[in-house]
TrEMBL record:
Protein name per UniProt: Thioredoxin reductase
Cofactor: FAD
EC number(s) on file: 1.8.1.9
Annotated SUPFAM superfamilies: FAD/NAD(P)-binding domain (SSF51905)
Sample GO molecular function, one term: thioredoxin-disulfide reductase (NADPH) activity
Entry's transmembrane regions: none
Gene: trxB
Domain FAD/NAD(P)-binding intervals: 3-298
Keyword Protein biosynthesis: no
Subunit structure: Homodimer.
InterPro entries assigned: FAD/NAD-bd_sf, FAD/NAD-binding_dom, Ferredoxin-NADP_redctase_2, Pyr_nucl-diS_OxRdtase_2_AS, Thioredox_Rdtase
Keyword Chaperone annotated: no
Length: 313
């Protein structure tokens, strides 16, 4: 039986693995089907992690984490977890894709989040054909072309600046006049001559065809008129949905307390209402969705899991 099963390999999962193994637990496995690193690996710019003064992309920033976090014995299993269940003896069953099952004394769920859909016409039809949620993945395809960015948070403005280095022009579309992004980020974007702000506006429709993909975007302005932007690509950054499916039982209900929005209720020790089950990172309630906070959550969850396992003896 595993001491701790960690589900998810982003900053929270990796930190949990580091603290659990360095703290003396011998049998700790992190289940992450893909390469560890989490959502931050798709970010173009990482400049606010304390102690890391060099500005770098998310992939480069996360590269040393896996090596450091596995140094003390954390095992990485490239498997997809389908669900977690609490057993009558107090242990947990982790059900993996393909029918395999693992047992663990404690579970830390760090499955993170995925980008929300904006909900405009043509979004699904042209996703991957001009509609994207990752500037570092797809920005190169629009070198010296005009593109649009939808959103008003830090990610939207940072990625607009990243795209401005590649593209000839970036239209930044936001539904309000005010921005959620940090003032310094807004100021930097406003000073960029390649970025044009279109505020109090929404994307009505993305249009194109199956051969060329996106050909343009219809933007609804404050006065109700439509502005037609003939651009081949739009990048959407309108928030995140938590990945909580592993915590659903056979009946479709969550095995622990959650908010109506799907985030998991935890206390300051990252404990859920189920003894031995912890949640960390974007998945938990009131998550600030910052790498430094996710890493801290993982460390706290691991320390709590260690205390819980000690209490079993």
């Amino acid at each position: 039986m595993l001491d701790v099963a960690i589900i998810g390999g982003g900053p929270a999962g990796l930190s949990a693995g580091l603290y659990a193994t360095r703290g003396g637990l011998k049998n700790v496995v992190m289940f992450e089907k893909g390469m560890p690193g989490g959502q931050i690996t798709s970010s173009s710019e990482m400049e606010n992690y304390p102690g890391v003064a060099t500005v770098m992309d998310g992939m480069s920033f996360m590269a040393p984490w896996t090596e450091q976090c596995t140094r003390f014995g954390l095992k990485h299993e490239m498997a997809n977890v389908e669900k977690v269940a609490k057993n009558s003896d107090g242990s947990f069953s982790i059900f993996l894709e393909g029918g395999k099952e693992e047992k663990a004394k404690a579970v830390i769920v760090c499955t993170g989040s995925t980008p929300k859909k904006a909900g405009f016409k043509g979004e699904d039809e042209f996703f991957g054909k001009g509609v994207s949620t990752c500037a570092t993945c797809d920005g190169f395809f629009y070198k010296n072309k005009e593109v649009a960015v939808l959103g008003g948070g830090d990610t939207a403005l940072e990625e607009a600046q990243y795209l401005a280095n590649i593209c000839s022009k970036v239209y930044l579309i936001h539904r309000r006049d005010e921005f959620r992004a940090a003032p310094v980020t807004v100021e930097k974007a406003k000073k960029n001559p390649k970025i044009e702000f279109i505020t109090s506006a929404s994307v009505d429709e993305v249009y194109g065809d199956n051969i060329a993909g996106v050909k343009g975007i219809k933007v609804k302005l404050k006065d109700g008129s439509i502005r037609d932007l003939q651009v081949p690509g739009i990048f959407t950054f309108v928030g995140l949905n938590v990945r909580n499916d592993v915590l659903k039982g056979e009946d479709g209900k969550f095995i622990c307390d959650t908010l109506p929005t799907g985030q998991v209720r935890v206390n300051l020790k990252m404990q859920t209402n189920i003894p031995g089950l912890f949640a960390a990172g974007d998945l938990r309630e009131d998550a600030p969705k910052q790498v430094v906070c996710a890493a801290a959550d993982g460390a706290v969850a691991a320390l709590s899991a260690m205390s819980y396992i000690e209490s079993l003896h």
